[in-house]
Amino acid sequence: MTRPKELDDFLGFWQITREIVDRASHQIGCFDGTAMFASDLRGLVYREDGILTLGAVASMRATRCYVWQTDGPSIAVFFDDGRAFHTFSLNQALPMASHFCAPDTYEVTYDFSRWPNWSSNWKVTGPRKDYSMRSHYIRAVVDTGT
After folding, report:
1. pLDDT for the residue 55
2. How many CA atoms lie within 13 A of 60 on its CB side?
3. Rounded distance, CA 117 to CA 136, Å?
4. Positions of the chain with pLDDT lower than 70, given as ranges
5. What homologous superfamily does CATH list for 7-139?
């Protein structure tokens, strides 16, 4: 089985499709966009940009930014402001991690079994939250114009 072995394996552009099931509000949603992993002094900066549609609300532009860093055999993910988010191991077939943001719990499972296509599956629970998000990443072909 091929899977990423180091942080730099994520460098570049990715197409994202995301399905969202919000059980608390009884809404289904989707996100279609792109992500880019780019090197900077902090590690790899992950930026995603796309269109989010949730329930009957008008579609809107949505963006997200994280910083990924090497942490031994693992990858540590941080919010853009430097706060720790979660850490996962590249040595596992289906790495899992969690993050507690009182009073909510965020649990993720990454799936690299079809690398370079990969996915993340989030389950978020709390007093007012009960949703899941499954994101699919496919390496984007970038037209360089040459």
Report:
1. 86
2. 8
3. 7
4. 1, 142-146
5. Calycin beta-barrel core domain (2.40.128.20)
